[in-house]
Amino acid sequence: MIRPNFLYIGIARAGSTWLFDMLRQHPEVFVPPAKDIYFFDQYYEKGLAWYLSHFQQAGNAHAVGELSHDYYFSPEAPARIHEALPGVKLICCLREPVSRLRSGYAYNKTTHVTRDVSLEAYARREAIMIQFDYYGHLKRYVDLFGRDRLLVVFYEDLQRDPADFIRTIYQYLDVDDAFRPSSLNEQINPARNARDESLALFAYRAAHVMRGLGMANLVGRVKQSALLNRVLYKPKAREELADEVLPDDIVQDFRKDHVRLEALLGRSLPASWYG
Question: Taking a C-beta distance cutoff of 8 angstroms, is the pair 6, 67 a contact?
């Protein structure tokens, strides 16, 4: 059976939907319709055969893979991936934590976070804070796979130069890096508001149930529907993007491992990460 030879392991709100679109367009790359299969963290009990069934239409694609942005902070995923796909290439895109927090907060208010939850309250949730331990989560992967098998890129570089960013990904996957996707400079998955909170929450929960029933590809196709997105969501107005002030202890907690992270990756973080 065809097995994936690359995985995007994280993170959310760091261009994963844009990257999914760029990979889908490349003629030498195969990714299934489902972004976020979540096999190695949420649906491992379905078995490897179920997982591999997502890739059997890959044909002669040189690079075969998937994007599940929560793998990076799953305690179980690294060892499971290493056992099932020992030669896989890993990709992780990191984003400055405060910027990522704000983006995740805005996005999740269109899914399962109610409007009365403040940014600070959201940030202090244990399930949210644990996602920002970039050093701790990535160290598990480096320890198992080695630094050379984990490509870490930065969302800030994607914002600065999308063409150079995707070229780096294509080169890592050993596919034609001269290919230029048609939607290279388009904004994918922009900030938005739910037109109706209850309807958006229902859609979010329904998608979760469908994934659990093994219909991840169907969820992927539905999520790509422009009509459905227009029905459920509306663009976020510019004035709604105003920043709430975060307490200094949260900001400093985000930055406490920057030096160790640089040592782990063997490279400097973007200057904007230091404020």
Answer: no
